[in-house]
Amino acid sequence: MNWSNLVAQMFNGLVLGALLALISSGLTIIYGTLGVLNLAHGAMFMIGGYAGYLAFEATGSYPIAVVAGAALVMVLGILIERVIVRHFYGRPAEDQILVTFGLGIVFVELVRLGFGSLSRSVPPPSWAQGVTSLGFTVYPTYRLVVVGIVAVALLILYLVLYRTRLGMIVRAGIEDSVMVDSLGINVYRVFMVVFGIGAMAAGFAGIVNAPVASLTPDVGESIMIETFVVVVIGGVGSFPGAILGGLIAGQILSLTSIVDPGYSYVMLFAAMTIVLLVRPRGLLGSRSRD
Amino acid sequence: MTARTKGTALKSRRNFLRQAAIAGIGLTAGSRVSSVWAKDEPPIGTWPAGSQGNSVFIGITVPRTGTYAVQGEDELKGYQLAVEHINAGHPLIKAISTKTTKGVLGKEVKFGVADSEAKPNVAVQAQSRFITENKAVLITGSTSSAVAVALNKLAQREHVLYAAGISGSNDTTGKDCVRYGVRQCFYGQTAAAAIGPITVKTFGQNKKAAYLTPDYTYGHTVTKSMQDYLKTAGWTTATNQVAPLGAPDYSSFLLNIANSGADVLLNVNWGHDAVLSTQQAKQFGIFDKMKLVVPYQTPFLAREVGGDLMAGVYAATDFWWTLQDKYPLAKMFVEEFEKKYGYKPEWGANNGYMEFALWADAVERAGTFYPPSVIKVYEDGHKIQSTVGEVYFRKEDHQLVRPVIIVRGKKAADMKNKEDFYDVVEVVPGEPLMQKPDAFGCKLGDYT
Amino acid sequence: MTAHRLPLTEILTGLGLLAAPFVLPPLGFAPNTVNQILVWGLFGIGFDILFGYTGLLSFGQSAFFGTGGFVAAYILTNDIVSSVPLALLIGMVAATIVGVLVGMIALRRTGIYFAMITVAIAEMFFFVENSPLSHWTGGENGIPGVPTPRFEIGQWSLSIGTGWPMYWFLAVIYFLGIVIALRIVRSPVGAVLVAIRDNPVRAAAVGHAVGLYKLTAFVIASAYAGLAGGLLGVLQGFMPPDAFTFDTSGQLVMQTAIGGTGTLFGPLVGATVWLFLRDFLQSALNLGSAWKLVLGLIFVLLICFLRRGLIGGLKDLWTLSRHRQVLEEPPEEAPPPAATDAAPLPAHHGLEAPSSGPILTARGLTKRYGGLLANSDIDFTVNSGALHGIIGPNGAGKTTFFRMLTCEVPPTSGTITFAGRDITGMSMTNVCQLGLTKSYQVNQLFSRLTVRENLRIAALADLRGKFRLDLFRNPARIPGLTEQVDRTLALVGLTRRADTPVSALAYGEKRRLEIGLALATSPGLLLLDEPLAGMSPRERVETVQLLKSIRQGRTMIVIDHDMDALFELAERITVLQEGRVLAEGTPAEIKNNAQVREAYLGGVVEA
User: Fold this and answer.
1) A131 interface with B at CB cutoff 8 Å
2) Does residue C51 carry a pLDDT above 50?
3) C260 inside domain
4) Integer Cα distance of A76 and A82 in angstroms
5) How many CB pairs under 8 A join B and C?
6) ipTM attached to this prediction
7) What is the reported pTM?
8) Strand order of the sheet with strand C436-439?
9) Which CATH number covers residue C596?
10) Beta strands of C460-554 (E only): which ranges?
11) What is the pLDDT of residues C105-163, one digit of tens each?
12) Which residues 275-294 of C are in CB contact (within 8 Å) with A?
């Protein structure tokens, strides 16, 4: 056993987990508030990356790329909610799943039509290139930056959810959607904003991750399935659950690779199964939404 | 409808009757074509129906969506150029297939394209349709061995020739070889045997190697071939990181490699996996500590990974466009391709072009589309001029005996144009690279 | 409804299958495409039972498709079994076993959670197939060389080749598959599955073991998937590893949704459209890689505008054209007060319910929600044959009390004894099977079914018990079912509305059906939560009549705000206030109870 490698892998797990946590929290707040499982979430991640790529190509500025990527996906999220998802609130949950699943395919293929399948890269900003020595290992500087950015994003999300009126409504909605209705709040406006924020979380992660992993139209699919596992482990609809689940999934993916990398994903799904058997609602899931 | 009904599986007249009874009325016209076939060329597969008109049809399945779409589209361009040339009687085709005038045996070549999504099941379904609907005389296309092996089996069952597209696994002309399938491109064994000596020569004896292996047959066979070869020079394996197909992130694998103390990283990944893992290896500073070797190069790899990343990297490949300085046919091909598509071809396109050219040659020399006759011409060991010099098919396993091209990545500063990514270091002759014909358990099967 | 009904669907299916090889090729279908359609169609039959009938959307069917396929392919290619049909059967059994195990995990949750879990589990199967088991499964390359079927009958031998001969082999299996599936969905089990889709809570409340029925549907779907997977291997001559991918599950879901859910034929139609368009868009329209975009768009539009798929759309058109005629009939008058012409419905639950003395006793019932005390230390007894009223102001904890009595929620402390048996902590389903059920304050109906179908669901729980695998039974042959349903219909005055969908009922009719649902389980003890709520004065009179008529032979507890009605009906009355018993006694005693008058009734009673 190589101890420095073990520490390095645990650290890497944290980095992977942070990103998964951010994407998953987007999925989970949409679900928690609207009761909609957005199967186009992976596509939002992908589109965020491409939007950022376009902005970067146009301006050459990393911050602009990040802001543009996130903003565009937020707008797209709001549009999706207004034009399509809105009409599905009164319909069975399964219809919502189906329509977002179809939308996901449409987005992926639209991007393929526009950009082709050749992968696109966004370089990390000049001040974050190269590697940094952490003592136990050297680590890509930009990935360290990603952890920072993601932590800040999660903190902002936390503040929005726990310190603002909107957040109060969202959390109340997760607890008891009927109650929120009776408060006379315009729930639909809240829904729209929440869908936008949730999509933005994925899009933001997508552009932040673009310098780490080059973009292809299919980049969102495997991420989305990992996100499901994270959310199921953490508890659907739970923001803290998404973060905990993300961190756990990151550790599993990273640590199992020391033993036998071929089994990383099998272990991830096995962990989910165990959580389901022991705590069907996920580690931090509440009983309100089912 | 009746003409579409195939009776290939009918073992005896009695079976025929039994089946006809089950099939209702669908089979009655099985004898309608009887006037056409000669005694020694009885109907088989799409023969003679597929070559009775003024044109013949080729079924092409390449991935156009999904992970391998880049390589699929590239391959398709090679096919399209070849068909254009064959039908026009272009000098390049005539140089390879010396008997060609226009078309194949005077018939125009037509083709259909279907998206295989890189899935064997979809590819088989699409090709089955091309065979029954269009009476395809040749099926082709793949960017992975999974599809190639599946189509091999389909070809043998349907008695229609299959020219494998990109397929790097030893199995395609090894344990899963078939009489009706041929392969043009290099594969795990020849790649390893070609790049091995150069690796040893460059980095020395008794080194430690790290492998990044995609978790499927192609990956395992290439890694195995490399390990076996390098062992003879005293190399050891520091770590072999097996990653799933289409992994979104390689960080944990790369950390293990970074901390493994290896001298050389052999990245066996293919397609976008190769691009992503190489880019991320760079991010982890791995190339500060160890050198990269790519045993089986992916088309567009250098273009996609970008930057100076491939500088000094050795890779084995099937074709590189600067071979035009060495081979006149390569020069013609590169020029023609660039004229049509506006960029320098990669090896997937060259592979596609050559497959069709070699097929045209085989059919022309056989003088018939009758598959067993065409196969026998493939097997006659005739030397053919190609874009990489003289080549021929090995009779025992239908593998083209062809050189493997070893290239080394250039520094950005040394590039003469934006596509000048590699220097050709060596053109390794093919024959010594190959395993004994029976080493991988190839049994070709029947002609009929 | 007659037992001698012509099996029209089966005959039409058979004719369609016979005609397909003659009709489809001119439209551009190659035999292999048609064969693929049949495999997808068969795969989808099971999925439709799971999704369309039971309402469980799984994105993980690839796990069973792959399992069945690889098991069959492995034993065939390794000469463990030489008979193709036997291998298919073994593959199907393997998939079924896997289905039981996966189902027990995945069905712990419903709805969206269930969908996500199935995705993840299926992905796990893919990775397991691809890596740890690649020695057996061939990993990425799959298993080549799967033989085609060969039958030896005496000295006759018949080997099925590819193309149309294979079509006939597949068509026979598809036909059997659809015949069996039709039997299943028409069986009592099928009726319960639909009820679960519509309202799982009520299905459990009327006494069906919902969890077991869901598992049944899941396992049926796995079995069909396993068989289809095996057939894919046989059809293609090799077993493709992509059978296990998420795309396979996704494509199945999309095809089923395109064709129409809840029809059994939807997946077949969807697969036809899908495979045809895939070929057509690529070959005829030369769309290249954009084919998937176009299909995706079509799918989204279908989900948005044709929510029940192509078959559903056609059906809607058909019913719309017929409905117009129905509408021309004069709207039905409110039915005559019930019960006069209806025979009383006996409570025939097999308990040794005492003919007198307490049938239900609650001791110290307390329910705490977080810091909120909903019910506190309630002692309560109802004598057999009594009609007991419960009154109390809003928030007095009446509904919580009922929910505890029917075991919908467990009490925080206290015990409940029903007919001499401690039922504390039992499931709602088991308690209903013992003969205790309630009608809800807010209607809990099976909203997509007709009145008759609703009542049949409840009666089935009574006649068949909480779980029974009579998958092939004709419900019309269940003794007493028709009578029980008809009698309940008559009792609640909905005979003339029997075949009306619930969604088309007036409010008062829905309330009566709500009571009817509880009644049709022939409970010994019936709890009614505000049966008169929201009714017009005239409807109240009718319903009070109804309550009077159904009390013969059973015990009833009624919550209502309508004091007059309760005082007229009940022999004894309990008054709840702030979660406690304030008073109990005969109506006269309650009316004269000073505490009650002061705290609750005020001067109303005198009026």
Assistant:
1) yes
2) yes
3) yes
4) 10
5) 162
6) 0.90
7) 0.88
8) C436-439, C525-529, C555-559, C387-391, C572-577, C580-585
9) 3.40.50.300
10) 525-529
11) 889 887 778 888 898 888 889 888 887 888 888 877 788 888 888 888 778 888 888 78
12) 289-290, 292-293
